[in-house]
Amino acid sequence: MVVARGSGGHGTCKPKPGSNDRFRLRESFERAMTIGRTAKRKSVAPGKAAAGKRRHSDIVASVTARPQAPAQRIATSLEEDIVLGRRHPRERLVEQDLSERFKTHRGDVRLALFELEKKGLIQRIPNRGAMVRDLTPNDVKEIYAVREELEVMAVRILPFPVGANSLEILEDLQRQHSAAIDAGDLLTVFYSNLHFHRALFGLCRNACLIETIEQLAQKAYGIRSYANAFPEALDRARRDHIEMITALRRSRRGDLIELTRRHLIPSPAAYIRAYERRFGDSNGADQ
Fold first, then answer.
1. What architecture (CATH level 2) is domain 70-132?
2. Where are the alpha helices (DSSP H) in the chain?
3. How far apart are CA 287 and CA 275, in angstroms?
4. Is 54 helix (H, G, I), strand (E, B) or coil?
5. Rounded to an integer, what is the distance from CA 30 to the centroid of its chain?
6. DSSP tag of 103
7. How far apart are CA 188 and CA 46, in angstroms?
8. Which of 26, 66, 118, 143 is paired with 214 by a 20 to 30 Å CA distance?
9. Spatial separation of the C-alpha atoms in residues 169 and 229, rounded to whole Å
10. What is the pLDDT of residues 178-220, one digit of tens each?
């Protein structure tokens, strides 16, 4: 199974409280995906299967994170602000303000903004600087139309039956997601949902398709917080995940395709409603 890789680095800047815990979560999920990828390539003797499962659970629970480089730490923090709806479309990102907030020089801030621009989360406008990317309702509809086709393609070509180890990884990630919903921890909800879908679409084994799905998913990071503000939307997502795992276990491709389409509906709908309330238009022509 091929999975899009995360990024990381080293540094000595002191992180803000709680950031190490969040990075441990991200790192643990990446390690979990590595185990899943390795398991798809190697056959595991029956006597070793249980030990492998225990190692997976242990890693998810207790991986120690490495410190992040300053630019990566800034990029991660701003990305999480966007994901959680703390920063809104068209909100300016002033280099001097950010360098003071993170107690570093503007060179690190510029590198961080460059990384976020590559992901499609922010935009730079001549003579106005950087700001959170303004996705208009039409942009969102176009992104999600393509996402739907690509994600349906992935579940249409993934081979059945799905191995027990892959199902266990998905179940572990779903338990993380469900527990985060119950705890009201929206950042963990985001990361666990992200890695659940990386693991799911990774089952298709088409590296080009997986990479393209990941790129479009990044463009939608700032959209998801709008649906996550509603408990019923979070509960619907939780139930969708459970039903997706059931469809995989029972090799019910039609059910999986329908669930994949349905799962994409709440976020763009909530974002568009909020956008039109905030800006009073549906085409975003006013910049």
1. Orthogonal Bundle (1.10)
2. 19-41, 46-62, 70-83, 95-102, 106-119, 137-157, 164-183, 186-202, 207-219, 221-228, 231-249, 253-263, 266-279
3. 13
4. helix
5. 12
6. T
7. 33
8. 66
9. 27
10. 999 999 999 999 999 999 999 999 999 999 999 999 999 999 9
pLDDT in tens, 60-92: 443 334 577 999 999 999 999 999 989 988 999
> SS3 letters for 12-28?
CCCCCCCHHHHHHHHHH
Q: Taking the alpha carbons of 73, 75, 79, 85 in that order, is the dihedral positive or negative?
A: positive
122 φ/ψ angles, rounded to the nearest 5 degrees? -130, 170
Length of the chain: 287
Edge to edge, the sheet with strand 92-93 lists 92-93, 129-132, 122-125
Give the Cα separation of 286 and 180 in Å (integer): 38
Query: What are φ and ψ of residue 9, in 5° steps?
Result: -170, -165
Using a cut of 0.85, tell me whether the model's pTM lies above it: no
Could you count the other beta carbons within 10 Å of the beta carbon of residue 113?
23
Domain ranges of the chain: 70-132, 137-274
8 Cβ contact list (under 8 Å, min separation 6): 27, 66, 68, 72
The CATH number corresponding to 137-274 among 1.10.760.10, 3.40.50.720, 1.10.600.10, 1.20.120.530 equals 1.20.120.530
pLDDT digits (tens, 9 = 90+) for 13-24: 434 444 444 444
